[in-house]
Amino acid sequence: MPIVVERAAVLFVAAVDGLVSPVEDDDTDPDRSDQIPVSVRHGDGEATLLVNRGAMLRDALFAADAETGADTDLSPYARATERVNCGGRGLCATCGVRVIDGPEASHWHDRLADRFGYPRLSCRIRVTEPMTVALVTDKRVWGGRERDE
């Protein structure tokens, strides 16, 4: 039985020990008619979010991360950038995710990023259809350099 937690723009179907309770295809619950399934691959597993149609992916990931606490890291941010970011305005490039399966990029910048294998900004992805995304595992401020020792 999935644990469904409602908050902001997302219903979260919790993953337990890396196992995800799938969203049933024959689920006719009228409260879920505008919910879009989004599979999120993260460190050790995969979680499924039911996101309100039209919500920004960044907001859904952020809300789901707040619901799960330390159990599952679903934030698109690194520890430092979680507090210091542009708030979803598409300016800081710290909320990148890799779109594995989902809508094609419509903006030229996103198409170019896809072509060269760069992540897309989750704050610029509106959830309109089912998708699978992978969180960037190397979460750090882009452009940062390692210190020479």
UniProtKB/TrEMBL annotation:
Pfam hit, one: Fer2
Lineage: superkingdom: Archaea
Bilayer-crossing regions: none
Domain 2Fe-2S ferredoxin-type stretches: 84-128
CDD domains xref list: fer2
InterPro entries linked to this entry: 2Fe-2S_ferredoxin-like_sf, 2Fe-2S_ferredoxin-type, Beta-grasp_dom_sf
GO molecular function: iron-sulfur cluster binding
Protein name: 2Fe-2S iron-sulfur cluster binding domain-containing protein
Source organism of this protein record: Halobaculum gomorrense
